[in-house]
Every structure is written in C-alpha cells, then in structure tokens.
Amino acid sequence: MEDGVDHLAFERNKAQFDVEDMKIIWAGSRQDFELSDRISRLVASDPAFRKDDRTTLDRKELFKNTLRKAAYAWKRINELRLNEQEAYKLRSFVDQPAFTDLHWGMFVPAIQGQGTDEQQQKWLPLAYRMQIIGCYAQTELGHGSNVQGLETTATFDPKTDEFVIHSPTLTSSKWWPGGLGKISTHAVAYARLIIGGEDHGVHGFIVQLRSLDDHLPLPGITIGDIGMKFGNAAYNTMDNGVLRFDHVRIPRNQMLMRVSQVTREGKYVSSNVPRQLVYGTMVNVRQKIVADASVALSRAVCIATRYSAVRRQFGSHNGGLETQVIDYKTQQARLFPLLASAYAFRFVGGWLKWLYMDVTERLQANDFSTLPEAHACTAGLKSLTTTATADGIEECRKLCGGHGYLCSSGLPELFAVYVPACTYEGDNVVLLLQVARHLMKTVSQLGSGNKPVGTTAYMARVEQLMQYHSDVEKAEDWLKPNVVLEAFEARASRMSVACAQNLSKFANPEEGFQELAADLVDAAVAHCQLIVVSKFIEKLQQDIPGKGVKKQLEVLCSIYALFLLHKHLGDFLSTGCINPKQGSLASEQLRNLYSQVRPNAIALVDAFNYTDHYLGSILGRYDGNVYPKLYEEAWKDPLNDSVVPDGFKEYIQPMLKQQLRNARL
Ligand SMILES: CCCCCCCC/C=C\CCCCCCCCCCC/C=C/C(=O)SCCNC(=O)CCNC(=O)[C@H](O)C(C)(C)COP(=O)(O)OP(=O)(O)OC[C@H]1O[C@@H](n2cnc3c(N)ncnc32)[C@H](O)[C@@H]1OP(=O)(O)O
Ligand SMILES: Cc1cc2nc3c(=O)[nH]c(=O)nc-3n(C[C@H](O)[C@H](O)[C@H](O)COP(=O)(O)OP(=O)(O)OC[C@H]3O[C@@H](n4cnc5c(N)ncnc54)[C@H](O)[C@@H]3O)c2cc1C
Questions:
Q1: Which 8-state DSSP code applies to residue 625?
Q2: What pLDDT score does 531 carry?
Q3: Where in the cell is the protein located (predicted)?
C-alpha cells in the first residue's frame, strides 16, 4: 500500500469541526498559537537543528552536538531579539534536553524565588546573559526523596564570615543534577545549615563550581558525569552530574536568604514566611511538568493516530484494501482515551499555571493561605499526569505494532526521554503521599468549622456525598457533566473518609499512615482524577468559539471521565457510588463516544499543530507517506554503509569456513 498520502487527506475531509479553531483552543489563545507556530517553523526550517541523526551518535558526539545546538539556539535568540517566552519556545522546539533546561528552569527560578532583592540584583543579570551557567544541586547519592535527610553541610565560620560547604560522606555526594556534570559554572546547592554546632535544616546556597577562565573545577570541588542513562540518545544529551565538596568556602551572602537569614554575628533569623518556601522551585517546576505532560502525550498520540489511519491489516475482500487499524474497536479503546487525556492534561495544565501564578502573587503580599493547596495540586497532578503520559507513550508504541519499535517512529526516544518524569521533581508515589496527607488533614478538620477550600471544597458536602447513589438509568445519562462529577466526588470523598476512619484505629498516626499507604495513594489518585475531570468540565462552561469545536471537546471530556470510571470500576462499585448495571451503561456510552471520535481523530491530532521536525517520526508524518520513507530511512543506517559489515571477516567468515571444513571431513 503506497497511497498513505490519499488516506490522510481523506481522513481530514471527514472532520466535523474547524481544525483551525481547535488549534487556537489547544494553544490557549490566538497569540499563543501564532507564537508556537512561528517558532516551531523557524526551528524546523533550520538545518542546524536537525535531529534525525541523533540515535546514531555515540555519547561524546551526542553531547558535543547538544552543546553546539544550545550555543546556536542562544545565538539565534539574541540575533532575533526573542523575548523570554519566545526563547523558551525555541528551546522546547529544539527538543534536545540540555544544561540550559536546568539553568533557565531551576537555577534562575531558585534565585528568583529564594534570593533577597540584593541577591537577585547581583546574580540574575549574570544568569540572564549566560555569563554564568547554573544548575540545581539538591539530590545526593543517598538521599533524593527525603530532602530533610540531605547530608551536605554548610557550616558558618564567624571568623571569616563564610560558609564551609562540605560533603562528609560518600552518600552525601550530589548525584543527578542536570547540567552539573560537565557544564555548570555555578549551582544552587542544598545543604544543612550549621551554626555553632546547631543544625537549622536544609537551605540553598549559591556555589561557584568551575573557573570562569578555564572551566576547571575550583579547589575542593570534585565533579563529573554520572554515566550513561536509559535509552540511546534520549536523556543522554544531559550531563547529570556527581559533585563532592571538600570544605569549600563561600561568602555568607551566598546563602539564599529570602526565607531565613544568617547575620554577621551568626544569628539565625527566620522571616515571617513558611520554611517550605525553600521547596518553592520544585513547586514551580512540577507545575511546568504538568503542562509538558500534555505535550509529550499529544506527540505520541499524534504519531499513533496518523499511523493507525495509514496502517491496514486483515479484512480485504476480493483483493480490495484491508481494514485501517484505526477502525478496530480495540485500537479505538486503547487510543482514544489517550487522545482525550492529552486534551484533559492540556486544560488542567492551564488551570494549574493560573493557580501557581495566583499563589505567587499572594506570597508576595505575605498571604500564605493557599500554599498547602498549591503544593498538593502540583504534587498530585505532576504524579498523575506523568504516570499516565509515560504509560500512554508506551501504549502508543504498541499501537504502532512492530514499526513503533523502530527509532525512526520517534516513540522509543520520546519514551526514554519522558519516563524519568515519573521520578524527577519528586517520585510519583512520594508525591501522592503528600496529597494523601493533605486530604487526611482536610477530613480531620471537617467538623471543626474549618471549611475546605479550593480543590477539596467538595468535601464540605461530605455528608451528602456519603449518601450518594448514582441515578443513572440509561447510557446517555453518563453524558451529563453533573452526573459524572458527582460520581467522581462521591468516590473520592468516600475513599478519603475510609482512609481517615482506618487511620483513627491506630494509636500512632504515623504508624497508621505507613500501614495504610497503598490505600492512601489510591485515595490521592481518586482526588487528582476528580480535579482533572472537573477542570475539563469547567473549560467546557467557557465560551468556546469555532464550528463544531465545543462538541468535539464534550465528546473528549466524556471519554476521559468514562474511561477512568471504566478503569477504576472497582473503586466506584466498592464505595457503592454506582451499581454494576450503571458501570455497564458507562461502557456502552464509551463505545458510542469512540464512534463519534473516529471521523474526527486525524483532525483532532492535527490541531496540536506539530511540525514533522518536532514530531520526529516517520509513522506520524503529516502527509502519511509512511512506507516509502521508512524504506528510505533504513538505508541510512550506518550499518548499511558497507554491504559486508565490519567484523564479518574477523569473526563470521572463519566460523563459516570451519563449518565448511567440518562438513567436508
Ligand atoms: C521530549 C522532551 C525533550 C526535552 C526538551 C527540553 C526542552 C525544555 C523546554 C521546555 C520544557 C519544559 C517542561 C518542564 C520539564 C522540566 C524538565 C525538568 C528536568 C528535570 C530536572 C529535575 C530536577 C529535580 O529532580 S530536582 C530534585 C527534586 N526533588 C524532589 O522533588 C524531592 C521530593 N521530596 C520533597 O519534596 C520533600 O522531601 C517531601 C515533600 C516529600 C517531604 O518534605 P518534608 O519537609 O519532609 O515535609 P513533610 O514533613 O512531609 O511536610 C512538612 C510540611 O511541608 C509541606 N510541604 C512539603 N513540601 C512542600 C512544598 N513544596 N510546598 C509547600 N509545602 C510543602 C507539607 O505539606 C507539610 O505541611 P503540613 O501543613 O505540616 O502538613
Ligand atoms: C533524569 C533525572 C534528572 C534529575 N535531575 C535532577 C536535578 O537536576 N537536580 C536534583 O537535585 N535532582 C535531580 N534528579 C533526582 C531526582 O529528583 C530524584 O531521583 C527523585 O527525587 C527521586 O528520589 P530518589 O532517587 O531518592 O528515589 P527514592 O526515594 O530512593 O525512591 C526509590 C523507591 O522508594 C520509594 N519510596 C521512597 N520513599 C518512600 C516513602 N516515604 N513511602 C513509600 N515509598 C517510598 C519510591 O516510590 C521508589 O519506588 C534527577 C533524577 C533523574 C532521574
């Protein structure tokens, strides 16, 4: 079959909505769309940003290639006088993880969030001009999740007005920070503050690591890359590093002092702000990771959807065309929930960005009331969306059959780059346990007149939700947003209340929390899924212009919610929120919804507006011209440079000759 081009054009004609209008909804606004469109085309049309050769490079070549691209991107950013938002887009579309992600994504925000005005004035201009390059050095060989367990020390020396940064043990070696291994000149390093023998807990310090003249490590610094990581190219473009401090001295004013200060006399002074603000950079990045989940998942879904329309298997009658695999109901039941999830994560990501901006403004006005909500939402949604996205990318690979396993499908690399998102910025289980603590606190305060707010506001109706039984009678009832919302609220609140009741049976609450951790994680997932569903529904209550656009989003919203209901049917049944018949009606409705998405599927992924360069996938090409390009690509593999491979004469020929001799004997 070599008519893939015709097939996708035919698919596009089937769409029942205006794809150009959907592009604006996906991008967030017309302005955002135009920005992304312009910058993605700029990157795609520049040969310096080609990436199809990435998987054939060895680590050193790959790393050098990354440095070249980062330097070239910076040159273009300056030449074109791109603003912050445009520069961020350009780095994203270059699509090659690099030290710059950590410089702009964590080092700069750490100083912005935790530095005093004076510190910001000193360090930020240098960082903005990239006259220094920074990383975020928190995790150690022995401690990642448990930040309070970090061992690196920063001991105040009142004689010299300095801190002495030291790695007392092997396990205190900094381990993992991106950009640290080979490039960063500076780090925001996290260490226990020790004054006069007293431990004041973990704080951030700006530490210079390498000379700005010859890039050699400064005295007392041992530094390097931690080695090859999962996947071939993937995240190996990044120099995740190891770092040991041997009594490295830094001036006192290099402790980030917005949250607490150390005076010249060595007095520890806490500002009137919560100590958790030291963790603020992580909250910021978790929020970005949620938005990024929709990007990674939509890339995979775009590839799998286009390829599913091109690929045909079975069902040929009288020599006619075989069936497009996208028409198999099993393919639809695996693919369309992922398509719906990509849209769901897009909208919840937009909402979370708003929440983060809101909490940031409040913090500036010394209002800390929404910090626990911001922490719980960013932690929980980071966990939920990255787990679903990593699993979803792998599912998309399987949806593409054997060809999905080829690097030229783009999926192996996307998966390998993406999957550590389940671990970095907080292991996903550890983060869900944070959400669970927040939920348990909320439940415990229900009777106290402390009204739950924000995303836990539904708990205020806990008595009503404990009595709830779904009144769904027919499949169409599951299309009503309130019906879905109530079922999700009732399930989430019942799971939280059950955990709280079980916890109260333990004399020691911490022991109970450990014992019930698996149930608590399930309750946290139910709560986070409710947030995503409710934010999708809220999005649909806004004015959504464009022919047929709202209708498509309603279908996707119902698919997202009913797919979750189907997947977690055990929760909904065991909490008594719905009965088995209502569960079957939801599955029936889901099948109807899949049929409604089918004619629109290609246009729904076109709405992501990804260039072929960004997708980096032969299977996901816009023109659907898959087979000729796959065939062409195979010949470009370095193994095909020679007809007889290196090593044949050395190893295989003697073996063949030996067999021949044996046969003759
Ligand atoms: C195909 C892709 C190609 C790539 C192309 C690249 C292009 C790039 C451009 C654009 C893309 C941008 C997308 C973004 C992607 C970003 C990439 C990122 C790269 C990866 C970098 C990774 C960095 C890291 O991993 S840094 C290290 C992160 N480490 C962690 O997350 C550690 C996790 N642990 C913790 O956070 C804590 O230890 C804890 C929360 C688990 C426990 O803390 P503890 O103090 O012990 O707290 P606890 O006693 O439980 O609670 C005390 C109270 O404090 C509250 N609390 C805890 N944390 C916070 C917080 N953060 N904020 C507010 N409050 C907090 C807690 O609730 C308790 O409150 P209570 O009221 O007392 O109950
Ligand atoms: C690609 C990548 C990039 C990174 N970049 C950076 C960086 O730039 N800067 C930086 O500082 N760090 C970075 N990190 C480190 C990262 O933040 C940590 O790996 C992460 O926080 C997880 O911590 P850990 O490795 O200690 O996992 P662990 O906590 O050791 O987790 C191991 C297992 O134990 C479980 N577990 C741990 N604690 C609990 C608990 N309380 N209850 C139940 N289960 C638990 C986890 O669920 C997991 O299954 C990076 C990591 C990766 C993979």
A1: -
A2: 98
A3: Peroxisome
What is the whole-number distance in angstroms between the Cα of residue 187 and the centre of ligand 1? 17
Whether the CB-CB separation of 252 and 174 falls below 8 Å is answered with no
Output b/e per residue, 132-159; b: 16+ Cβ within 10 A: bbbbbbbbbbebbeebeebbbbbbbeee
Q: Distance, CA 283 to ligand 1 centroid (Å)?
A: 6
| Confidence (pLDDT) at 593 | 98
Q: Which two tokens stand for residue 113?
A: 């969030």
Q: What is the pLDDT of residue 29?
A: 97
Cβ contact 558:564 at 8 Å: no
How confident is the model over 307-320, as pLDDT tens digits? 999 999 999 888 89
Task: Name the token pair of 109.
Answer: 């925000």
Q: What is the predicted pLDDT for the residue at 5? A: 53
* Alpha-carbon span 359 to 591, nearest angstrom: 41
Element (H, E) at 85: helix 84-94
CB 431 within 8 A of CB 494: no
- Phi, psi (5° rounding) for residue 434? -65, -40
Cβ distance 247 to 166 under 8 Å? yes
Q: What token pair was written down for 23?
A: 């592009």
Residue 159 has pLDDT above 60, yes or no: yes
Interstrand relation of 134-137 and 221-225 (parallel, antiparallel or unpaired): unpaired
CA-based radius of gyration for the chain: 27
517: which 2 tokens? 């951790």
Average pLDDT, the chain: 96
Q: What is the CATH number of domain 108-271?
A: 2.40.110.10
Does 178 count as an annotated binding residue? yes
Residue ranges of the domains in the chain?
1-47+280-651, 108-271
Do 609 and 27 form a contact (C-beta atoms < 8 A)?
yes
Residue 246 neighbours by CB distance under 10 Å: 12
Ligand 1 binding pocket (C-beta < 6 A) is 91-92, 95, 97, 101, 105, 136, 138-139, 145-148, 178, 276, 279, 282-283, 285, 288-289, 292, 296, 371-372, 375, 414, 417, 424-426, 430, 434, 437
**Helix or strand or coil: residue 246?**
coil
Lowest mean pLDDT among 6-10, 303-307, 653-657: 6-10
Given a contact cutoff of 8 angstroms between Cβ atoms, the answer to whether 14 and 599 are in contact is: yes
pLDDT given at position 598: 98
- What span, in angstroms and rounded, lies between the C-alpha atoms of 412 and 229? 14
**What's the CA gap between 96 and 106, in Å, rounded?**
17
Residue 489: active-site member: no
CATH number 3.30.420.480 given to 1-47+280-651: no
Q: What percent of the chain has pLDDT over 90?
A: 93
